Each structure stands twice: as structure tokens, then as C-alpha cells.
Amino acid sequence: MALADKYKALTDAATTAGIADLAVREQDGILYIDGTAADGATKDHLWEVYNQIDPNFTSGDLVLNVNVAIDAAVTHAKVITESSNLNIRKGPGTDQPIVGKAAHGEVITLVNRSNDLWWLVRTNDGEEGYCYAQYLEAQA
Amino acid sequence: MKTTKLLMSMVIATTLFFVGCKPNDAAIQAAIQAKEAAGITVAVAKGEVTLTGEVDDEATKAKAEEIAKAEKGVKAVINNLTVKPADVPVVIAEDSALIKNVADATKDFPTVKAEVKDGVILLTGEIKKASLITLMQHLSALKPKKIDNKLTIK
């Protein structure tokens, strides 16, 4: 369980942060940490701890899959791209044609989140399509 | 004289009462602790037992409470035992899904080249330090077996 020791600071931080459904398993020399964080700041904090233990994530011995919990009642999301517009596509995938764009920082309507990676959204102009969920932050 | 004797006996009685109370808790604690499984901590205060620690399942938790309740002199049992969550199996995405999802995730990182084989994502090319954490977050959500990061950090 050397990996569990190496990443103890991370699992401790996850426990302290109250990560829901926290699961830590070692399999074939890789440690898998899954769970759900209450908010984006908690998730980012865990990634900072991870980066301290394994600078620039070069070891390849951990898969940290912590998602941010979203209340089912949430209906809007903010575009959190670095600076560019976010593509809205006809279907879930970058191979799908672009049907519209949402501006960086714009708050758009969430229509359906049944796909974890691609959320169906509607802009204020009424354009509807799929956006990459990692660039959307659910609005409380 | 009589009053003094009475007072004395009262003092002795009181002392005995208090002294008598303390080892009682300690004795209960020792008796229960000896019967409980490893990992369970027993604390007793005035006949009230508190169980703490982590056990494997609900049945063990309930049994620990029964053991404590059965002990003579126990007035109440506070069962603060927690049940260890069952290990969720590691889910690793199929290559076909992973290849598509990795292509989507890396699209906005044109200097990064990603290859998928047997669940392992091999990253080559270069990336800005500030973007690395975002890329790693995106890829880790895709349920890969491993992320082999050979990126040059700019």
C-alpha cells in the first residue's frame, strides 16, 4: 500500500473536505480516487494537493476523478472557458457541427444533463445544443 | 461526640459512594471492551456507554451495541460506530469511448497529442503549466486506466 501512503495527504484532504461517496482503491499499481465534491473550489483544492505530491502529474500512478455535485434544481450554468467562446454543437461530440456559441462568462440555461460530458443547453438567443460540461459551472 | 461520629460516618459513606462509582465505570468499560471486536473503542461515563470506531458492516455495528447493552450496570448505549463503505470497483472506460472522449477533451489543447491504448492515455507534446491542471481534470473524468503524462511543461 505504498501508493496509499504516497497520496495520504490527498486522501486525508478529501476526507476533511467531506467528499461524498469517496472511494480509494489500488489496482495494478495505480491508485483510483473517486468521489463528489460539494463545489468547484473543493475539487480544485484536491488537485492542488495532488500537484504538490506529484508535481506536474508525471508519475502516472493516480487517477483522481472527483466531480462537482449539482443540485437537480439547478437550471443555469456559467461558461468558464479560459477566455474564448464555447461551441454549442448539434450532438454530444466535437465531431458534431457547431450550431452556436456562448460567450465566456455568459450564463445559459441547462436543458438536460443526462450525458456527464456533454450538457444540452439553450442560450439567451434561443440556440439549443450540446456544450462540453467541463467548461460549464452550474449556478446555485 | 455523637454528632462527630455521625459526621464521620457520613464522610466515609460519601467517600465510598464516589469511589464506588468510578471503578464501576472502569469495570464496565473493561468488560465490554474485552468482548467487542478490534477497532471498536468503548467509553463509559456514569453507566452510559459510547461506542466509536469503524466496522465492516451494519450487522457488526448492531451486534456491538447488543454486547454493550447486555453488560450489567449499563444504563444507555450511544452507538457512534460508522460502517466502512464497500469498495466500489474501479470502472475503466472502453477504448472506443475513451478515444472519442479524449479527442473531445484535448481539442482545446492544440499543442497536446493524445493516444489511447488499452485504457492508457499517453500525452506527448507541450503545454503551459497553467493549462495542465485543466487538461488533467478533463481527462481524469473519462475513466482511463492511467494517464501517462510525457508532456513538456512550458
Mean pLDDT over the residues of chain B: 89
CATH class of the largest domain in chain A: Alpha Beta
Give the proportion of residues in helices of chain B.
40-55%
Examine the coordinates and then state which fold CATH places here, giving the name of the CATH topology of the largest domain in chain A. Alpha-Beta Plaits
Number of strands of chain A: 10
Overall structural class of chain A, as computed from helix and strand content, comes to alpha+beta
Unreliable residue runs of chain B = none
Report on the biggest sheet of chain B: 4 strands, mixed
As a whole number of angstroms, the C-alpha radius of gyration of chain B is 31 Å
Roughly how many Å apart are the termini of chain A? 39 Å
Overall pLDDT level of chain A:
93
What is the ordering of alpha helices and beta strands of chain B?
HEEHEHEEHEE
Largest sheet of chain A: 5 strands, antiparallel
The total strand number of chain B stands at: 7
Shape of chain A: elongated
Beta-strand share of residues of chain B: 25-35%
Number of domains of chain A: 2
* CATH architecture label of the largest domain in chain B: 2-Layer Sandwich
How many helices of chain A? The count is 3
Describe the protein in words.
- The complex is a heterodimer of chains A (140) and B (154).
- Chain A is built from three helices and ten strands, in the order ααββαββββββββ.
- Chain A has helices spanning 2-6, 8-16, 40-53, and strands at 20-27, 30-37, 62-68, 76-79, 86-89, 98-102, 107-112, 118-122, 128-132, 136-138.
- Chain A has a five-stranded antiparallel sheet, with no helix packed on it. Chain A has a three-stranded mixed sheet with strand order 1-2-3. Chain A has a two-stranded antiparallel ribbon with strand order 5-6.
- In chain A, helix 2 packs antiparallel against helix 3.
- The longest helix of chain A has 14 residues, at 40-53.
- The relative contact order of chain A is 0.15.
- The model of chain B has no long low-confidence stretch (mean pLDDT 89).
- Chain B has helices at residues 2-35, 58-70, 95-106, 129-140, and strands at residues 40-45, 48-55, 76-83, 112-117, 120-127, 146-149, 152-153.
- The termini of chain B are far apart.
- In chain B, helix 2 links the parallel strand 2 and strand 3.
- Chain B has two domains: 2-83, Histidine-containing Protein, Chain: A (2-Layer Sandwich); 95-153, Histidine-containing Protein, Chain: A.
- Chain B has 154 residues and is α/β, with parallel strands linked by helices.
- Chains A and B meet through strand 1, strand 2, helix 3 and strand 3 of A and helix 3, helix 4 and strand 6 of B.
